[in-house]
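[step 3/7] inverse_fold.run input=structure_tokens len=111
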């Protein structure tokens, strides 16, 4: 089992980390194997309910998709709908492709 939410975890994209994102997220614990960022959707079952909240989680990964499930480098807020989390993951993927995930994370810390 990769993480606590593995049963409700859906890998969405494996994206090479850009230079700025690599420095911000992957150099924290330098490891030559981690060159990519894995985007996934994690389900969190609501207490006493059959319904789930969802968030976008990003993990350090190698080029094969083997990821470090210890702690995500980024986790979004919870979404009530799976479709909203999918849309958020698409937007976050665009930020990674522009090498700007580190800027998005900084902006969320300030807000």
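[step 3/7] decode complete -> sequence:
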């Amino acid at each position: 089992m990769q993480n606590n939410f593995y049963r409700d975890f859906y890998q969405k994209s494996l994206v090479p980390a850009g230079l700025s994102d690599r420095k911000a997220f992957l150099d924290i614990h330098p490891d030559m194997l981690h060159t990519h960022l894995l985007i996934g959707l994690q389900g969190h079952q609501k207490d006493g309910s059959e319904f789930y909240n969802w968030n976008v989680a990003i993990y350090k990964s190698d080029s094969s998709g083997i990821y470090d499930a210890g702690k995500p480098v980024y986790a979004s807020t919870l979404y009530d709908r799976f479709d909203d989390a999918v849309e958020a993951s698409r937007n976050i993927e665009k930020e990674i492709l522009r090498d700007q995930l580190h800027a998005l994370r900084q902006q969320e810390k300030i807000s």
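[step 4/7] annotate
The chain is about 30% helix and 25% strand.
The mean pLDDT is 81.
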